[in-house]
Amino acid sequence: MTTFTPAPGAAPLPRMISAQTGYELRTLLRNGEQLLLTLVIPIVLLVLFSGTSLVDVGGGSRVDFLTPGILALAVLSTSFTGQAIGTGFERRYGVLKRLGATPLPRSGLIGAKTLTVIIVEALQAVVIAVVALVMGWHPHGNPLAVLLLLLLGTAAFSGFGLLMAGTLRAEATLAAANLVYVLLLILGGVVFPLTKFPSGLRSVLDLLPISALADGLRQVLQHGSALPGKDLLILLVWAIAGLTLAARFFRWE
Amino acid sequence: MSAPATAVQISGLVKRYGGATALGGLSMTAEFGQVTALLGPNGAGKTTTVEICEGFRRPDEGSVRVLGLDPADPSVKPRIGVMLQSGGVPATARAGEFLTLVASFYASPVEPAVLLDRLGLTEHARTPYRRLSGGQQQRLALATAVIGRPELVFLDEPTAGLDPQARHATWELIEELRASGVAVLLTTHYMDEAERLADKVVIVDGGRVVAEGSPSSLTGAERQLRFRARPGLGLDELVTALPAGSAAKESPAGHYLIEGEVQPELLATVTAWCASHGVLAEDLRIERRTLEDVFLELTGRELRS
What we know:
- The complex is a heterodimer of chains A (253) and B (305).
- With 253 residues, chain A is mainly α.
- Chain A has helices spanning 13-29, 32-51, 62-92, 95-99, 106-134, 143-165, 170-187, 199-205, 209-221, 229-249.
- Chain B folds into two domains: 6-217, Rossmann fold; 221-288, Alpha-Beta Plaits, CATH 3.30.70.
């Protein structure tokens, strides 16, 4: 038997997915811009606005108001911005096409990307929580409600991130994903309370997925609510819309 | 896993992009243990053909069987290896890391270190893809195509832009694949590559096969005589002295080509004619037609876009 005597066959699916996930995680963690987006910016905003009175959070503990918003921002950065840019360039460089010719099925690739996003978000949540606790954060509420909100938010942002990556040019995705990140950071109740916006505008902004996620997390973590029904419903609608559109319009090359 | 006798069987393949017809009824086969080379000008339909076999595109008409199956059948994927014409590797991925990732998708892959070594990439194992030279990127793409021990390998221009050493390393690897019983279907622009490697050459033009066969059957037994001399010799006079059916031309200036049945008498006639005109024929040689001659004859000499 020589080196190239045919011995074809696919590896077991779990092994393929774990290999792809490991690869995606390593790629993400050594990418400086990604780390800036996923960790540095959220932590800087948390420390800056919790430790100063630059933003009027409308009474109450500053860190208790800000931490849920920063958690929502972390989800946005990883599941939407990071995933859209990363996947957009993979598509542009033919990586998605090339992987499509291996035994790794498309569902396996999407599964690996989803796992990667969830693992990175867990890391972000741990770091943000530790910094917040050091700054005097007192979380309330049911952790399961928090988890449900984070997962629905991830689904909603992932759907639109992949929709963008799979339809626009990579450079357009890069620009648009960053623009959306900044706009949602400012307009989505992440650090600036939506109560400070005019009421007409506010009723629209309330329907954004980032607003629903930040508000829902605040309801639970700051005020100890059981399940913020309205916010969950808004996120669910965005998640269904985003994932359906991505499944319909995503182009692999 | 019962292997079919033929690795790739294509018949009457038609593919249209908008109004343009990329493939207009192409038929061909590729066999196990053989290298089949698709040759053709740019836009002839080589890549389209290969990408249909790889399952990336669907044909509009005709039938394609890869390992006896529809190319879209997921059970084909573990059994084939694919080298795209360009790209396919993330810019930041390290060469060894990406090869190891692809290896992990297969049941019994070749050891990545062995392939890196074979292709001269060992010292670049930790280099990000975007920092590899074009030739190194090509070799990494080749490595990812063969690492899963496939039965059938598609290589789209595997040696484009390679230096001579890398070309030879690639050729040796392809010859080893053939010796191992793998079916290799490659596209190329290099005639010497097709002549050296291919058991079968398929010349494609305008989305159809215009000739196919072994390199020697395509070039045939025909010979031609070439020499160099001062420009502007009176060839019309020479041709009248040659056996009927012979032709002579000067292209470029000072380079002469005599075509026809090249027999000892013809050679004697040419040298005698030169002597009587005081012409010293330099670099006089009798040669078989090359694959390049056949190719240009079949596909024309005008430039393609």
